[in-house]
Design the sequence.
């Protein structure tokens, strides 16, 4: 059961509902979004649900109560028909504005990140990406600059005004990344439940990548962990899954992305870079994702892809990113959205 609080609900209203639920034997999970607070109630005896829902719907500040049978409740479209808006800088993902997050795979040097930040800003990106802790398949690959890299991201934000998006790999890094505007949970960590709970206890937007061996249902339940811990500022990201196909790095599952949008009110974006693995295929899939209804994109852009320390082959140059943004604007406009 989900108790959907009205936009005007006060803190006392939320507390009153939560206290009452406890009294009735429910576990309650308060999840705060920008516009609304949702309260998930789990565990009351079957027979009492209807009368409890009826009583709660008359509480001050309560908009409506929805019974939900799905294992993901707070993030389910049934709990809220309207797409949740997640604000990142000037853009609200989920509002019909299409946001494009861009930047290098990893922060490598001051020159590199500043050059990338200026270029993606000039092309119209809404946020700067850049990993400082990198989950690499090989322990011998570049692992990121850590705190030093974050300082460089902060300097890039100061110069360009772009909010910064960076990956968190474990719970201890959350405090170290206090300066980040958006915390990314990577594909390899989509089922790292302690991490999901911990980012759920922050009030920062979380970019949740789909695991490459995760079904849409697994992915939605991972989002539910974050929401149940208190944070509804979640942006889902389809980044490709493993299939028998080896021609592309992963298989970008735009069908899964669209299916996820039916199931959840959270905004869903696509990552054409990690899925395709080569810059030659990134623009096509970026355009396809927007045409298919993605709420945004995350794209790797490097000022000198041939010198990149990670994911160079899939990184766009500033010039090709600029061209792509022009085409994306046209597609977004054609389907009644704004980039
Ligand atoms: C990344 O964004 O650089 C990254 C490692 O992505 P993923 O977790 O999707 O592989
Ligand atoms: Mn990468």
Sequence:
């Amino acid at each position: 059961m989900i108790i959907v609080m009205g936009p005007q609900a006060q803190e006392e209203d939320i507390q009153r509902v939560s206290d009452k639920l406890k009294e009735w034997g429910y576990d309650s999970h308060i999840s705060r979004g920008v516009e609304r607070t949702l309260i998930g109630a789990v565990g009351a005896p079957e027979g009492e649900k209807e009368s409890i829902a009826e009583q709660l719907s008359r509480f001050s500040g309560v908009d409506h109560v929805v019974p939900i049978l799905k294992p993901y409740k707070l993030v389910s479209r049934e709990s809220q028909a309207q797409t949740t808006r997640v604000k990142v800088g000037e853009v609200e993902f989920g509002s019909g504005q299409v946001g494009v997050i861009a930047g290098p795979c990893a922060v490598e040097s001051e020159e590199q990140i500043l050059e990338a930040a200026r270029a993606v800003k000039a092309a119209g990106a809404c946020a700067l990406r850049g990993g400082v802790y990198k989950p690499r398949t090989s322990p011998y690959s570049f692992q990121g600059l850590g705190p030093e890299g974050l300082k460089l991201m902060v300097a890039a934000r100061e110069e360009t005004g772009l909010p910064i998006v960076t990956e968190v790999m474990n719970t201890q890094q959350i405090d170290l990344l206090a300066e980040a505007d958006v915390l990314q949970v990577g594909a390899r960590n989509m089922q790292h439940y302690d991490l999901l709970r911990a980012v759920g206890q922050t009030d920062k937007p979380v970019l949740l990548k789909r695991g490459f061996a995760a079904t849409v249902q697994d992915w939605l339940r991972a989002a539910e962990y974050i929401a149940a811990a208190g944070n509804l500022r979640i942006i889902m990201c389809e980044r490709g899954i493993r299939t028998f196909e080896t021609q592309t790095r992963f298989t970008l599952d735009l069908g899964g992305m669209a299916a996820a949008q039916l199931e959840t009110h959270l905004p869903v974006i696509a990552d054409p870079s990690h899925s395709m693995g080569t810059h030659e295929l990134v623009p096509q899939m970026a355009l396809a994702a927007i045409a298919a209804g993605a709420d945004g994109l995350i794209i790797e852009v490097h000022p000198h892809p041939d010198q990149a320390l990670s994911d160079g082959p899939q990184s766009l140059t500033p010039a090709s990113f600029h061209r792509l943004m022009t085409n994306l604007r046209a597609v977004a406009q054609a389907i009644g959205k704004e980039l």
Summary: The CA atoms of residues 170 and 192 lie 8 Å apart. The mean pLDDT is 96. The pocket of phosphoenolpyruvate (ligand 1) is lined by residues 105, 131, 135, 186-188, 209, 239, 271, 274 (CB under 6 Å).
